[in-house]
Amino acid sequence: MRVLLVDDEKDTLRAMACFLDHSNVEALPVADSVEAARHIINQPFDAMIFDVHMPSPDGLELTRSARRTSLNNTTPIGLITGFDDTETQSKGSEAGATCFAGKPITPQKIRSILYVLQRAVSPDRRKHARLPFLTQVNCRWSSSGTRSLLAKSLNLGQGGMLLEPSGGMSVGQELELEFEIPLVWRPILLRAKVDRFEQPDRIAVQFLDAAGSDFEAVQSYIAQRLHKVEPEFSSGDNQGVYSFR
Q1: How far apart are CA 115 and CA 231, in angstroms?
Q2: Nearest Cα residue to 8 out of 24, 31, 25
């Protein structure tokens, strides 16, 4: 599960990011809401959590922006605020938020927010979930001769993975990937193409082999990991978290 966190209060942002990191959730913490707006336009997320009261764009404006994008128009969004009042909740619902929680933010409240957001993730988005996955990946591609790069993976999904460094590859470049996953005795070999760049020097690659034993091995591994990760937020009360939809 890949979650965008946005809060201009850096202590709160660090606390939320730390909790998610320890819960096998990939968090992208952003203190600058202008920067967050760019991420919303350019990257798909499985869920987003915004502080309501920030310098423009605030959490309500970010929510409206997300609903106008093609990548995040259905992404579940949780709003947090120090002003736990009916008017703010109403504005959040109208903007398109999924749930609302008042500060202070505690680990239990973050757990409850994620439980609500997780239940709202569509089957299609769940299919594109990214799991933290660290391993060496041997990349080979042709560009004025055969070139190779030993990269490091940062996450893995059913459709692709995030690698660093980029090795000078361009968007659309096709390449061969070789890497290992747990409980599979042989290296995984897959064709892929560069889908996009991410800062500081990362590339997101999309798998091109939608069949075969290696692709099936990746799908099986992800399914097992999702089964282990998702129950993390499946219990406990949702006190202080109000669902809009």
Answers
A1: 9
A2: 31
CA distance 43 to 47: 12
Pairwise CA distance, residues 230 & 115, whole Å:
9
The pLDDT score that the predictor gives to residue 135 is: 93
CA separation for the pair 227, 123 (Å, rounded):
14
Phi and psi torsions of 200, nearest 5°: -85, -35
Residues of the chain with CATH 2.40.10.220: 130-229
Enclosing H/E stretch for 220:
helix 213-229
Model pTM score: 0.58
Q: Under CATH, which architecture does the 2-127 domain have?
A: 3-Layer(aba) Sandwich (3.40)
Write out pLDDT tens, residues 96-107. Answer: 999 888 888 888
Closest CA to 66 of 98, 88, 21, 90: 98
Q: pLDDT (tens digit, 9 = 90+) per residue, 10-52?
A: 999 999 998 888 777 889 999 999 999 999 998 888 899 999 9
Does residue 226 register a pLDDT over 80?
Answer: no
Q: 70 exposed, middle or buried (CB, 10 Å; 0-12, 13-18, 19+)?
A: exposed
